[in-house]
Amino acid sequence: MAKKGQTYFCEICRQKVVVTKAGFGVLVCCGQEMRSADAGGMMATWTAVHHKPVDGVKFHCNVCGQQIDVIVETTGILECCGQRMQRIGETSAK
Ligand SMILES: [Zn+2]
Ligand SMILES: [Zn+2]
């Protein structure tokens, strides 16, 4: 289960997100489970590069309430609990 503040990334499209509200669901991108960047391993260096969150791009899961901030946005489809995550906070007002 994801924990608040944990970083996850997709090995396929390299989308990267940070959990802002933990849920029980498993984060999925491109049809496979996203990996925790905090687990170390070969992606540790790449994930250590600090990116600023993409402005206003957040997603949440309607089922478990999990919420994430997108740090590296790609065209990969984010899913949680077997369904697409809902994009929120989409304000063009800046
Ligand atoms: Zn969920
Ligand atoms: Zn992906």
Describe the structure.
Residues 3-35, 58-87 form the Desulfoferrodoxin N-terminal domain. This is Desulfoferrodoxin N-terminal domain-containing protein. Keywords: Electron transport, Iron, Metal-binding, Transport. Pfam families: Desulfoferrod_N (PF06397). One of its GO terms (molecular function) is iron ion binding. The chain is mainly beta and 94 residues long. The chain has one domain (7-88). It is built from one helix and ten strands; from the N terminus they run βββββαβββββ. The protein has a six-stranded antiparallel beta sheet, with no helix packed on it. Strands 4-3-8-9 form a four-stranded antiparallel beta sheet, with no helix packed on it. A hairpin with a 6-residue loop joins strand 1 and strand 2 (16-21). It is globular, with a radius of gyration of 12 Å. One zinc ion binds at residues 10, 12-13, 15, 29-30, 76.
Supply database-style keywords.
single chain; mainly beta; 1 helix; 10 strands; 5% helix; globular; binds zinc ion; iron; Desulfoferrodoxin_N_sf; Desulfoferrodoxin N-terminal domain-containing protein
In a few lines, what is going on in this structure?
This protein is mostly beta strands and about 90 residues long.
Protein topology:
Layout: E1 7-9, E2 16-21, E3 27-29, E4 32-33, E5 35-36, H1 44-48, E6 58-60, E7 67-72, E8 78-80, E9 83-84, E10 86-88
Antiparallel strand pairs: 1-2, 1-5, 2-7, 3-4, 3-8, 6-7, 6-10, 8-9
* Strand coverage percent: 35-45%
Helix percent band: under 10%
Bound ligands, named by name, code or SMILES:
zinc ion
The strands making up the biggest β-sheet line up spatially as: 5-1-2-7-6-10
Termini separation comes to 34 Å
Oligomer: single chain
Structural class: mainly beta
Sheet of most strands: 6 strands, antiparallel
Contiguous low-pLDDT stretches (5 residues minimum) are none
SSE order, as H and E? EEEEEHEEEEE
Distinct helical segment count: 1
- Overall geometric form: globular
DSSP summary, beta strand count: 10
Number of domain units: 1
